[in-house]
Amino acid sequence: TISQQSALDGPTDGNLYLKASDWTMISNIVHAFDAFSPVSEVRRMIENFNTLSSSSTSNLQYDVSQSLYLMSSFYKSLQSFICSTPDFQILTLDEQRSLFQRNMLGLLCVGGMYLMRESGIFDKPENELVILPLYGTEVIQQAKRICQQLNFDPTLLKILFVALAFSSNCYMIHNRGNISKDSLLLGTFRLLGSQNVYVELVWKYLMHTYGYDGSVQTFSKLIKRLLDTLKFSIDMYKNNRFHQTFIDDIIQQNETSSIVDEKAIVPLWGKKS
Predict the structure, then answer these.
(1) In whole angstroms, what is the distance from residue 18 CA to residue 236 CA?
(2) Which keywords label this protein (predicted)?
């Protein structure tokens, strides 16, 4: 068997698009995302439940609290991922809160879909039961279709997640409270440096991987899938009481508590996977 070249392997042909510093940043992003990923834990949880269910005479079922625990684990992993970046750590506490108010729910939409797919939730009908109490059959089928369409290069998606997190404006839930408490409102330029770096990195990686024509096509599909996912999430927020409460609780926690536990910070950035 001939081993495939890793997406993180450096260029061997004098690459025109990605410099050594770009490869280091990509490696850092992938390492940090994977370090906080709950995928292995979720897969074990589902496998253990399926084993117990098949061997038990009683009718074991998931409940809403287990579904919410799953979504919470996705959110916490994405939050920890973004908190590990140098761009986030140089912000003041108020700016960190504002950034999460702006962009974290959008990141949860897209990143959560990716984590669902990677966790194998849509691999088998019995796996889908973990989110059935929270979302119901119709929404699950919609989510499944969206996840199937997010079949992009995992490295590309992980770079995109950081770009989305540092977007200058990605409000998912818009209200006067958001605006009045936004510490970045008059200083959005503070995000532009980070935003530009990561968006440019997305494009460089596309060019390296697909060439110009392929990059244009892939980027167009990626943006379409991103918008579809965000719209789907907004509809869920409007129509699902449990999901709405879950999101509102996240917003409230970000407003009143410290986002980063300094004692729990793991210095991930700068390490290669």
Answers:
(1) 39
(2) Receptor, Transcription, Transcription regulation
Q: CB atoms < 10 A from the CB of 18, how many?
A: 18
The answer to the question of residue 112 being in a domain is: yes
> Which of 219, 202, 158, 155 shows the shortest CA–CA distance to 17?
202
In 3D space, the residue among 26, 22, 174, 180 whose CA is nearest the CA of residue 103 turns out to be 174
Q: What is the CATH number of the domain that holds 47?
A: 1.10.565.10
- Give tens-digit pLDDT for 183-222: 565 555 667 888 899 999 999 999 999 999 999 999 999 9
pLDDT mean across residues, the chain: 84
Contact 75, 108 (CB under 8 A): yes
Q: How far apart are CA 14 and CA 267, in angstroms?
A: 31
Query: Which pTM value belongs to this model?
Result: 0.84
* Token representation of residue 47: 């496998």
Q: Count helices and strands (H / E) in the chain.
A: 10, 0
Backbone angles phi, psi at 22, to 5 degrees: -70, -40
CA atoms within 13 A on the CB side of 97: 18
Taking the C-alpha atoms of residue 140 and residue 133, their distance in angstroms, rounded to an integer, is 10
Per the structure, how many domains does the chain have?
Answer: 1
Helix (H, G, I), strand (E, B) or coil at 59: coil
Q: Hey, what are 79's tokens?
A: 């939050």
Residues in the chain, how many?
273
Burial class of residue 203 in the structure, from the number of CB atoms within 10 Å of its CB (0-12 exposed, 13-18 middle, 19+ buried): middle
